[in-house]
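FIELD: query
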Amino acid sequence: MATNRQAETSSIWRAPVLFAILAVLFVLEGTVRNGMFSGSWNTSLAILNMGLISAITALGVNMQWGYAGLFNVGVVGFLAIGGLAPVLVSVPPVPGAWSAGGPRVLLALAAGVGTLALAAFAWRRLPKGRGLAVAAILIAGFVIYRQIFDPAVIAIEANQSAKYGNIGGLGLPVLVAWPVGALFAAAAAWAVGKVALGLRSDYLAIATLGIGEIIVAVLKNEEWLSRGVKNVSGIPRPVPYELALQQDPAFVARAQAWGFSAAEASAIWVKLCYAGLFTLVLIALILLAELSLKSPWGRMMRAIRDNETAAEAMGKDVTGRHLQVFIIGSAVIGLAGAMMITQDGLMAPTSYNPLRYTFLIWVMVIVGGSGNNWGAVIGALLIWFLWIKAEIWGPNLIAALTAPLPAGGLKDHLLDSAAHMRFIAMGAVLLLVLRFAPRGLVPEK
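FIELD: result
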């Protein structure tokens, strides 16, 4: 009994201790300047902000995997489609783009949705020959869709193509784009889930992997939507601009009183504003996630995760519940995607790398402790910090280890390979955690 109480006390204090260690690391990064830390608050806050966005993404993945055992390998796709929201919601309208082909694009999309709805209706209602009828409807609908859509897209992309070439946005406040990004990802998750959630877990992983790559490929190639590889820059932000702060005499005076230059202080203040916004969103999501996890719905989801057959025998709609949690988790991931684009001020579809936005997120969830929301946050902050610092620590470590070796040959090869140390470091961290803490740093109770 005493041993159980000691273990419970240890588990209660584990998360606060790990958060304290993380806080020390970020403080050292901001204050200490040596071979390990930069001594720059700008760098420390930049790592923290991206770590908070990664924590929100990891929280979404944890809802899918930790609550329901759904293996989503298309995280990058839901991040990307969420990142499209600031472009379509907050960017100012492109002059002439809407009149060039906007209504026709909407008409084409309506035709596509109508075709799918008519095909589904025919499949359910026709007693005989429904296969041929559905095929005929889909082929005819596709031809009509392309006849309307292609000329509209050509007209939009020809409109001031050097500067714009896309449809533009609505010019709304950028914070409105964050929940819209969640809605975009939720809609994509509903479409994927209706098809793939009836499959076995390995087939679900393959399906989500393919869907994620398709979404990224669409963003790269549909220039009328997000300019493709030309990128969309100048996305509005919810915090002040550095140049405006540097031109404010009161701000400059305060910065000098604290011992900072105006440029450095403005960059730090902007990052602090982002950190405050991201922290508020993260705390709200954790509170909602914790409430849901401890509710009857959360207990039911874990029962389904642990034994689908028994849960189904008790009358639970396993596929329907899986669809629910898949949509909710993907919405959280889409929210993180919109927040990331807002912070960057740039939509660059070519930057969506599955290694960074799928594999690394899964490492965060596994290291932190799947099924535990606080563990997912701790894992995200820790792994992102190590991911960034390994790019500096790795070459320094290799240089120190190869110092006694003669020049040329093996030494040159090791020094040239030092740039890849962050991949080795992530693999080593994952293996160590799986070996000594297989349930993660903060395991599920």
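FIELD: remark
The chain has 18 helices and two strands.
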